[in-house]
Specification:
Length: about 220
């Protein structure tokens, strides 16, 4: 699966070297997508001696095991796979609310493909969607989530996507990808109680459907 459990060690597991190499860093800006589901904007990268050096935009560098990186996307370049896997090319068709999704995803360290998939499953991109249980808007925020993140208008796309992505980031940090999706659907208490995806057919189907949509957004070439 494209995602793993996210922990505080998402910065790689090897070493963080806060020493500048401004002359060596490539000029193009890039975004690193880690296997954990986190993302990191960087100035550029290089592969040296079986490791990947990530040049940080604020200066300094991060030396990382390539197995922990899913892909690196350049601003104007195709996806570059740094691990010994087939070359992956991002296939992100133009979608509604793309600017809001991309912005919120980068701000909260969530893969935007996951947010797009959630919106598709939750509301089918209908900003005024409302469920019988009271879930509202694009990311179907429950009233408790609206209160938790102080959302003024849950049917406003910007506020809805911001709160939904922020909430998803919190769930990912605690439960990992599959558990986070289950918690988004069935509630955090259910995932804690069953120590994983609860035995609800609807929740299992929900998690599988979201991840299928995520996988469909990348093609191997």
């Amino acid at each position: 699966m494209l995602f793993g459990r996210r922990t505080a060690q998402w910065w790689c597991v090897l070493a963080l070297f806060l020493v500048g190499r401004p002359a060596a860093a490539p000029p193009a800006a890039e975004i690193v997508f880690f296997a954990s589901g986190r993302t990191l904007p960087i100035a550029g990268h290089a592969v040296e001696g079986g490791t990947v050096i990530l040049y940080l935009r604020g200066g300094g560098e991060l030396v990382c095991d390539p197995k922990l990186i899913e892909r690196i996307v350049g601003d104007a370049a195709p996806v570059v796979a740094v691990a010994p896997t087939p070359l992956l090319t991002a296939k992100l068709p133009s979608k509604p609310y793309a600017e809001l999704v991309e912005s919120a995803s980068e701000r909260h360290g969530v893969d935007p493909r996951l947010v797009y998939a959630l919106i598709e499953v939750e509301s089918g991109y209908r900003p005024n969607a409302e469920s019988p249980k009271g879930a509202m808007g694009l990311m179907q925020l429950m009233p408790s989530t609206v209160r938790r993140y102080a959302v003024g208008d849950p049917f406003d796309p910007e506020g809805n996507i911001e709160a939904g992505t922020r909430h998803l980031s919190t769930l990912l940090d605690e439960f990992g990808t599959r558990g986070a999706l289950a918690a988004y659907n069935a509630g955090e208490g259910s995932v804690r109680r069953f120590d994983g995806i609860p035995p609800y057919p609807e929740t299992w189907k929900y998690v599988s459907r979201v991840l299928e949509i995520v996988d469909a957004q990348v093609v191997v070439r």
